[in-house]
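Weekly structure sync - notes
Attendees: PM, LS, DV (DV joined late)
Agenda: review two folding runs queued last week.

Item 1: First target. Sequence and structure tokens pasted below for the record.
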Amino acid sequence: PDAAPWEIDAGPNDRMDAEAPPPDAAPEIDAAQFDVIPFDIETRVGNRRTVAGLENNITCQVLDQTGEPIDGARTRVEIFPDSGWEATEGGAVGVIARDYRVVCASPSLGLRDDDPAIWTVVPDNPARVVTRLTETDLEAGGTTTVSCEAFDEFGNPLELDLEQFDVDVVPPAPNLDRGRDGELTMFDAGTFD
């Protein structure tokens, strides 16, 4: 008949004597292959907020033009301001409580993160309390006002209300009047701490 040799209509039990078309000799690939080109760099911090003295992990990731990571690219971390923190092998330890701007760069590739990470360091638990009096020498019946400030082990002040402090007079003053806003009226003569 008129059919080409590879167009034979064969049933399930028929033998095919026709020659099959030759296979395509090109290798099978899913998509075109392009050179990997460093395109962007991203800054990543482990935690956006840490207490003073706690290490925060910082990593830089170089990305290709499709957003895929490129391993092995040389990067560096820049933290601004450039004081108040200490570098570690995996990141940094904030000592001064404030906001830091963290930027990754790869000078050899000409890349710098345009969207730096903000890392906030907050004070640690109180380690020291300073007590102040408006008047240190009083006559019996005189009034002074007490104020208290708390600091962490790095000297960062903590914002605490006076109600969060215990104000004790030593030795105990039997005739002491505690007024509003830290006012103390001493009715006893003596030396007190």
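Item 2: Second target, run right after the first with the same settings.
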Amino acid sequence: IVLYRLGSLLGALLCAMGGVTNFFAAMQETPARGRIPAEAAKDLLAEARRAVDSGEGPRAGALASAALEASRDPVERKQAFELVIWAALASGEVAAARNLVRTTRGGLDPYLEAAVAEADGDPAHAAALLASLRAQGDPRVEVAATLVRLELKAGNARAAAELTLEIAEHVPDEDLERIAGETEAAGAGDLAE
């Protein structure tokens, strides 16, 4: 105002522009103050995985969400997003997990999608996803073990037994005995032995 009264319109404009610029800069800095450093994302992901594995769904979800926010790496962000979904399942929030899967346009681990489908009451879709993974050569024992369980639930003891034979060295003896018993009861005794 003083510069304007002294006849310096340009000086008044420059001073006002500086004030506006400083205001906008200060507004942009505010959200970043509480931001977690990107380097911490790996540690958050590891801790979130441990929390999911131990059944601590809410804690895992909070950690995975923080990792998702902190990371700038696309691979880490994908892992964090998948952990958010696993955390929702661990917390019993099936609808939330289903909605998160639906918001993506593919690219998620099909094993995770199968877990959500099974929890959501669609074991046939879950089995189809897992069978597709096995056909593509996925070596994870948990994929095969889940497929065996789904086949047994569906009454497909023969398919479960055949798959169990493929992964027998990774399956506990008591599970092998149960599968053999169910296979024999289903009339596929030749595979039960």
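Discussion on item 2: The chain is about 75% helix and 0% strand.
Action: LS to circulate a short write-up before next sync.
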